[in-house]
Amino acid sequence: MGKSHEVSRRDFVKIMTGVAGTVIGAGITLPAVGYVLDPAIKSGGSGKEDWIDLGPLENYPIGEPTPFNFTRTQINGWEKTFSTNGLFVLRKSDTEVEVLSNVCTHLGCRVAWHEDKGEFICPCHDGVFDEDGNVISGPPPRPLDHLEFKVEDGNLFVLFKEG
Amino acid sequence: MASKIYQWLDERLGFDDLYKSLLDRPEPHGTWWNTLGSATLFLFTMQVLTGIFLLVYYTPSPDHAYDSIQYIMNGVAFGWLIRGIHHWSATLMVLMVFLHMLRVFVTASYKYPRELTWVVGVFLLLTTLGLGLTGYLLPWNQRSYFATTVATEIAGLVPGIGPFITRTMRGGTDLSALTLSRFFAAHVWMLPLTLAGLIGVHLYLIIRHGESDYPTEED
Ligand code: HEM
Ligand code: FES
What we know:
The structure holds two protein chains of two kinds.
Chain A: H1 3-42, E1 49-56, E2 66-76, E3 79-91, E4 97-101, E5 112-114, E6 119-121, E7 128-129, E8 135-137, E9 149-152, E10 155-161
Antiparallel strand pairs in A: 1-10, 2-3, 3-4, 5-6, 6-7, 7-8, 9-10
Chain B: H1 2-13, H2 15-22, H3 36-54, H4 65-74, H5 79-106, H6 115-137, H7 142-155, H8 162-170, H9 177-209
Helix pairs in contact in B: 3-5, 4-5, 5-6, 6-7, 6-9, 7-8
The structure holds protoporphyrin IX containing FE and FE2/S2 (inorganic) cluster.
Protoporphyrin IX containing FE is lined by residues 34-38, 40-41, 44, 97, 100-101, 104, 109-110, 114, 117-118, 121-122, 124-125, 128, 199, 202, 206, 211-212 of chain B.
């Protein structure tokens, strides 16, 4: 065995080992990266929001805030979570509509409509809001959130944003 | 330039010395049979890596174990691949360990001064089998549930302390959430760490003794 032959054969084995190692390494690393990043990629960049169908607008009486509750299912991987959400639809006239979140702006309890007083009252720390959601008294720092909505073919849709 | 950097580093880290004392040793003119230990080592490395990745999604609770595996298989990109590698190299690893042991036996390499290499090897085999046993339960499906029921029952056949062994393995009289979480703990921490430690001793001994040459006719 000549010396030059010996060396080139050794180098050949080294190179082949390097190539095989790189191929195997990449073959595992690339899928692994995709595997870990998958939920981040699939959930997309924007926050979660959805148009909720509230049915025909005329079902909601004029003049009184009407509560509407709905449950949302979320699937995160193998886990399903249910969240119950509520809002109030207030029709002031045939054309004028307001949709208010029922989440108190203080610490997030759910407010209730008190017909006798004409106020939203939060049971947690006695936050009080008027019909339009403005703060009358108590700790809430700002009015109830107004939700975006649209009316299509006489049906009311509300844009619900998670969190 | 590159060789200068290398020299600077080597002066402080001692790569060359490491290489000389660990790997640059005379080897017998071996055959492919001599590669089985290294093949096992490679598979073990793969198991550790893919296992770590499986842990990103796997959940060791009776409520979620099965669903989380379904999610890995169908919901996550390349989940099937990661799990597939873990599954098949687990099977292959047991096979490799056996073949490796067989070759060491056939070439009589367990003789002086390598008796302890063999003894450590026996524990390597047992730990590998333990990993197989504990891993099998983790998907928490019918098959794994009953396989574990049977396996822990067999362990219970040991005279005297048998029932106690069964209860220890199961974490109670029946298979339950406790069984799943102790099998999980054993599978991802206790046994792999044990195996890694044993492999360290095994390799130390191999480096210390060098590999055995094949027996000649006089032997
Ligand atoms: C996790 C399992 C194991 C790993 C990673 C492993 C690794 C290795 C490696 C890399 C070698 C170098 C030579 C070769 O590959 O043939 C070796 C040699 C050896 N192994 Fe293992 N081994 C394992 C299991 C076992 C088992 C189950 C036994 C026997 C019960 C055993 C007994 C030996 C002996 C006696 C040698 C020295 C052979 C010689 O010097 O020719 N090993 N092992
Ligand atoms: S949460 Fe409503 S008043 Fe505090």
